[in-house]
Amino acid sequence: MCNNSGPPYEYGVGSRVILGIFLLILIVLTILGNLVVITSVLIFRKLRSVTNAFVVSLAVADLLVGVLVMPFDTYRQLSNAVWDLGKGMCLVATSFDVMFTTTSIIHLSCLAVDRYLAICHCFIYHQYMNQRTSIILLFLCWTVPLLVSFMPIMNEWHAIGIEGLQLPHDVPACVFIVNKPMAIIGSLVAFYAPTIFMFVCNYRIFQAAKRQAQQIRNLEVATPSEIHHNKSMRHETKAAKTLTIVMGAYCVCWFPFFICNIIDPFINYCIPAHVWLVAVWLGYVNSTINPFLYYFFNRSFRKAFIHLLCLERCALVREFDANGNTTLSTVSE
């Protein structure tokens, strides 16, 4: 192993305090932000849809990153990479890390399929994307990552062939080092293949939306049904744009990590620890920023967030139906 790898430089007391406060803020923002997303869909009826079922499940995964993943890595950083929690706890913490990363990408892939059917095959969308289908897909979104994380990691399949590899520091540490086959297979399954799939889906989505918008513009006189279809398509396209931004943010945040993950075994694990530190936490930050993306790019979620955070004082963002009940615009807006 290269001398460049291993733990980062030791933090002094002042540096630990500053770093600890910064990481604590990220953890709190991650937990609270995703709680707001979950609560918004549960409280506001207009936000309840098949699409938002996946959004809520994704928010649960991001919430668990803040609860079960980021605290362990914060401990690792503040202890100068010394791990005193035992090997078993190290494997469990690593399994949670891999699981929720994979969970996020599978959720985004399901969302891409949902938007693809809603726009490219709108007439059969409700036939296929019903409650039963969404339950099956959500079940797969959680069970598949569970199997591809805990099973290989707890059995230490990632260490086959590199059992004799020694870390360049004589302290107990929790470092996830994978062999070449696991690096390639894991990266392809957990990132590269789903990312390519999502981009293909989104390309076809926007091509279809562009064609349908052009067809409607070419009509000299639109019938009421065509006008309704046009409005529906605009709503679905806006929802697709929001989800594309969320998907793009995920890919940008996790791309450095998966580049390092697939290259490191082939260069004798020479990527420096501080590069890994930045790559890993950039990936974690994706779970922090998702609620903010919904706030800035989805009007319905923005109204729900403002109402929840301001409670009864933000009457200006509330809309009422004929019976005086609080309503929100549809999620596609």
Tell me about this structure.
A two-stranded antiparallel sheet has the order 1-2. Helices cover 71% and strands 1% of the residues. With 333 residues, the chain is an all-alpha fold. Helix 3 packs parallel to helix 6. It has helices at residues 13-43, 50-78, 87-120, 125-128, 131-154, 180-218, 224-263, 273-297, 299-310, and strands spanning 319-320, 326-327. 32% of the residues are buried. The protein has 9 helices and 2 strands. A hairpin with a 5-residue loop joins strand 1 (319-320) and strand 2.
Topology:
Elements lengths: L12 H31 L6 H29 L8 H34 L4 H4 L2 H24 L25 H39 L5 H40 L9 H25 L1 H12 L8 E2 L5 E2 L6
Antiparallel strand pairs: 1-2
Helix pairs in contact: 1-2, 1-8, 1-9, 2-3, 2-8, 3-5, 3-6, 3-7, 6-7, 7-8, 8-9
Task: Explain briefly what this protein structure is.
This protein is mainly alpha-helical and 333 residues long. The protein contains nine helices and two strands.
Strand content: under 5%
- Taken from the alpha-carbon principal axes, the silhouette is globular
Low-confidence stretches: 3-7, 315-333
Q: Taking strands numbered 1, 2, ... along the chain, how are they ordered across the largest sheet?
A: 1-2
Alpha carbon gyration radius? 23 Å
Share of residues in helices? over 70%
Number of helices: 9
The secondary-structure class comes to mainly alpha
Reported for the largest beta sheet, the result is: 2 strands, antiparallel
**How confident is the prediction overall: mean pLDDT?**
83
Task: Say how many strands there are.
Answer: 2
Report the span from N to C terminus.
53 Å
The succession of helices and strands, N to C, reads: HHHHHHHHHEE
